[in-house]
Amino acid sequence: MTTIICVQGDITGQHVDAIVNAANSSLLGGGGVDGAIHRAGGPEILAACRALRASHYGKGLPTGRAVATPAGRLPARWVIHTVGPVYSQEEDRSELLASCHRESLRVADELGARTVAFPAISTGIFRWPMEDAARIAVETVRAAETNVEEVRFVLFDERAYEAFSVQVR
Ligand code: ADP
Question: Considering the domain 3-168 in this protein, what is its CATH number?
């Protein structure tokens, strides 16, 4: 059984085995939570991302997929980078957002991570409506077959915290 909890705060400060990064496909850093993770974690994370680009992910990490690196100076052991879909009104990309959560948990299982923190993937620069993102994230984690014991959604502001809390209750 995976326990799902919500906290309001900064994901970079979480003492968990792995934190999930809402990365972009370049893996070379960006704004939002990605920028915060690289700033707080230091250059080791970017070096590991560059190595991934030079090997398995020459064209970048596809949307909906996930890959792990060490977490540098962060209190977590690993960062699991996943690329959320950009929200679209014309096209339903929900399956890609669900895939980010499933794939991140699959990578966490490969690492042996038991506690994993997720941000609200795609709800920032990628503009996914918060309530809908919360529903997809929580439903997907609930349905996942994983050895992860605790999934902690770490929400940056009160609105995100409320949206996720409603789904978890
Ligand atoms: P995306 O490109 O997937 O939309 P963003 O990083 O722009 O990714 O935003 C994803 C979510 O992460 C947003 O809800 C944003 O408020 C939140 N966020 C930004 N910084 C942090 C942080 N340090 N810890 C947790 N969440 C954060």
Answer: 3.40.220.10
